[in-house]
Amino acid sequence: MAPQSKKKTYQVIVDQLKEHFLNGDMKQGDKLPTERELASQFKVSRTSVREALRKLEMKGIIETRQGSGSFIKSIEFQSFGEELSSAIVNTERKLVYEMLELRRVLEMECAYLASHRATSKDLEKIRQALEDMVIAKNDVELGLKADVNFHINIVSASNNTIFLTLIQTLNGQLQDNIRATRMQRFSNPERIEDTIDEHKQIYLAIASGNGELAKNLMENHILQIRKEFAESSLHHLKG
Q1: According to a count of CB atoms within 10 Å of the terminal CB, is the N or C end of the chain lower?
Q2: pTM of the complete model
Q3: Is 96-238 CATH 1.10.10.10?
Q4: Are 182 and 144 in contact (CB under 8 A)?
C-alpha cells in the first residue's frame, strides 16, 4: 500500500505541472516552486530537492540564477516532468541509504560505549525520549522529534565528544533520514508499536550494561529500516 501511495504523490505533482504547462500557465523560462514548496509537495527533504535540482541544471533542463531561483530551460514538458520526478526520487533514495550506512557504524559503537559509560542522567534522557515516542506515536512531528532525540541521546551517552560533535553537525541529515524512514514504516500502523519496541529493547540493553546486546540490537534496528526502505523502493520501481 505504501509504495503505491508514494508513487501516486509523485504522479500527482507531475500531472499538475503538466496541466499548467499544457494550459499555458507554465512554459520555458518560468520559475519553479521554491525548494521548500517542492519538498512539501513531493514529501521529501529539502536536501533531496536541492541535489535533484543541481542534477537537472547539469543536464541543462533547468537554470538556477543566484538569488532568484530555478527556471525551466527544456521546452519539452514530458522530458522536464519525468526528469524532475526521477531526479528527486533517486536523490532521496541515495541519501537515505548513505545516511543509514553512517548511522549503522556510528550508532552501533555509541550504543556499545553508552552501555559502559552512560551516567544516570544520560540514561534518564534516553528513557525520556523513549517515553515521548510512546506518547507521540500518533503525532508525526512530535514522534519524529522524540525519535531523533533518542538516537542523539545515545550518541551523547557514549561520552565521546567527537562522536557527539559529528552527529550534531549532521543533525539536519539525521532528521531527514528518520523522517523518510518513519514515513515509509508507519504507512503500516502495526509498525509503530514494533518500532517503539525496538527502541525500548535498545534502551534496556544499554541501561543493563550489556554492550554486545545493545550493539547488536542497534545494528538490527538500522538494518531492518534499510530492508524495509529497499523493499518500498523496489515496489515503487515495479509500479
Answers
A1: N
A2: 0.70
A3: no
A4: yes
